[in-house]
Every structure is written in C-alpha cells, then in structure tokens.
Design a protein that fits this description.
alpha/beta; 6-stranded mixed β-sheet; 4-stranded antiparallel β-sheet; globular
Length: about 220
Amino acid sequence: MLALSRLSKNYRTTDVETRALHEVSLKVERGEFVAVMGPSGCGKSSLLNILGLLDRPTSGSYRLMDEEIAGISEQALTRLRRDHIGFVFQSFNLIDELTVAENVEVSLVYRTNGGSPRRRVAEALERVGVSHRARHRPQQLSGGQQQRVAIARALVSEPQLILADEPTGNLDSANGEAVMDLLKGASAAGTTIVMVTHSPLHAAAAGRTIKMLDGQIVSETQL
C-alpha cells in the first residue's frame, strides 16, 4: 500500500534547521492496521503529514499504491489525497455551520462517481451509529458523537487509506473504545489504517505498533 525508503524531513527557518524525520524506512501492506507511538516531538505528526500528502519529504522515497510521490504535481497530489485518503483528527475538524449530514457530504463534493451522495452519507452515518443526529449541528453533539461523525466523513468516500491522528485523545474511555471498534471494523473490511496514538491500550488494537524517537523508528512490535 505504501513504502518509505530512507525518508527525511527538515524544516528550515532563517536561522535554524530542525530535523523532524531522519532516514525513515517503512512498509505498510494493504488492509494493515498500524499504530505509531512516541513522545511529543518525535516526528509522528510529520510522518502522518507526509503519508497524507500534506507535506513533501526533504529527501528519500515515498511510494503510495506503487506511485512514487516525489516530483509529481500538486494537482496530482490533490487528486490522490481526494480519491484515496481519509483523515480522522483529534480535534474532529467539523464545520459548525453545517449539519452532521452536510459535514460528511463534504468528502464527496469533488467526487463524481460512486452513486447518490445522500445515500452514501446515510449509510456512513448508520455505520457509525449517529444517523439519528443527521440534522443536528456539531455543537449539539457530545465529543464521542462528533468523533463518530468525523469517522463517517473519512469512511464515506471509501478510501483505501485512513490516517488517524490521536482519534481518541479528547474522548473518555467508553467513547474511545467505541471509536477504536469503528477503526478495527474498517480495517477488517480492507481499509489500510495508520494511527498516531499515545495510548498503549488503543495501540494494542492495531496489528503492528511502531515506536518513534528523535525522528526515527526505533522499534516495531507485531501483535
């Protein structure tokens, strides 16, 4: 599904250069569920941004679905991100002015295939158990419900890859477990998932756990 080879990422300001990732090599197979752990500042978010085509590496190789990412146009990056990647964020990133259904439908605005958007939105909301909240605004929902909507938004376009950045970080234990059940269900259905988490309990739900330190992968555990 994706492969990194000796990938590095440096951020430069006028006076300082910061190394976020240093020669990271990683392969994730199609349908695999991988958790990424490590202390703050270890490079987890930089890795996720590159995997999600939100940032480019300074050096090294990133292949997504057998396509080398280095050198392709911004238009091609946007198309790959739109058609193949779903994002789940810790802060939900829902649009307050839109209803729950409209927030989910946003993922389908620029897609022209795959049947009726309204039907697909309804199916996605049913899948995460919030179809009864379709006409509500995000601020009328609990944190757990908002995260379920965010997952529905990621799932509705049937992406091949889901990137989840601390998806349970703002939730209590019960809602956190419910969110993990949804991600495990998506993985079982064949979606590749890479999840950043600080929770060893939630990392244990993945098939493999990667630990990072100082911009490098220092260990991997197959569960």
